[in-house]
Amino acid sequence: MVPSDGVATSRWRRWRSSDLWWSFTHKPSAMIAAGILLVLVIAAFAAPLYVPQNPYDPAQLDLLNAEIPPIWSPDGQWPFILGTDTQGRDMLSAILYGSRSSIIIGIASVALSLSIGMILGLFAGYFGGITDTVLMRFGDILLSIPTILIAILVSAIARQALPENLRDAGAAGVLVLAITLSAWVQYARTVRAQAAVERNREYVQAARLLKVPARRIMFRHILPNTLTPIFVAATLNFGMAILTEATLSFLGIGMPPSQPSLGTLIRLGNQFLFSGVWWVVLFPVIQLCLLVVSVNLLGDWLRDALNPKLR
What we know:
Elements: H1 4-16, H2 19-25, H3 28-45, H4 91-127, H5 129-143, H6 147-161, H7 171-198, H8 202-209, H9 214-222, H10 227-250, H11 262-270, H12 279-305
Helix pairs in contact: 3-4, 3-12, 4-5, 4-7, 4-10, 4-11, 5-7, 6-7, 7-10, 8-9, 10-11, 10-12, 11-12
């Protein structure tokens, strides 16, 4: 038997010799974006280990520490490196905790919308007929409405449907649902187009003649051939999901002030932008820009790297 470390070494060697790795190492923008994204993600999820306070815990907030400027300013104080907001909340802690919330919501919404879109797209493309017509016309209706309006409508309805004592606790789930219902159509249309082509291939026809169940044909044979464009779309939509969450939170129908996300921090800081407390809004904006731009750069690289016409 081959030792497990030998198998891992062999896989790593094959990955190092792949076209995708070569494209990544010869694309400086992709390497820089990946490095920035890795640092941001690690910093956000490891924040409880080193930040000076938990911004979710009111017991750790002190109004006497409110509106302290960044550490390099004459009035700056340690350990508030990026200063504090109007509630005495350390901005570095709030930004890192907020980034974690935004990343989790983005990943969850992309995973859920991807799952729904793939399943519905497979059914529409494989069976065609009335199934295809109903699903795609419903998708066309959703596409005719701006994504942010759908998210606002779903978020507002879902929050009102929840009991008042559960609205803050369920805010993240409501955001995931709102973003999912406005984003699954793109995945469904992509998978549906590919499945409509693959169902006429010889291997699918042979599987049908052998009485292979439709479910097995769809998920074991057709679905793997649709994953390349889906991965690219998911990467790009991850950045869009973070922006959508930030927009909803900025409008006041996203994460509550007691559970700050980047959008919530920007909304709260925007109220004091012209009062001299500029750092409360500037640093969350920079963090959001770095996060979204790095994801989009990786998505652009992945789209080019997986496009056979560009090789």
